[in-house]
Amino acid sequence: MKSRNFVLAVAGLGLALGGLVPAVASAETSGDVSVQEVHRKSAKCRTPEGQKINISWGDGNVSTTVYYNNHCNQARAIELEFVKESGERFNKCFVAPARTQGHKKIDYGMPNKVSILDGGRC
Known about the structure:
alpha+beta, four-stranded antiparallel sheet, three-stranded antiparallel sheet, 7 strands, elongated, disordered N terminus
């Protein structure tokens, strides 16, 4: 009797998930949802040896959110360079504290360049 209940549960789960697939596919192909490219970068820590800080960000039109996971014993600065339509360049910088993970939203979209700086200051 237990194996019959297991089979029914698995079949029910399959039907439930099967119902979700068409909705996901139609959302991706419709003009309502845009798929943004995700970029990743990492840099080695001074200490502990073999560890890194990892960051990722997407190509937002209005803002850029940078996600970080700093495994280093030191704070690391993350600098983003943006280019205005006029060609003027400007930078935004923030610090990822040592041994933390988090994110920072910056109110400008599509950075031209993203750098992880050695110093923990901007």
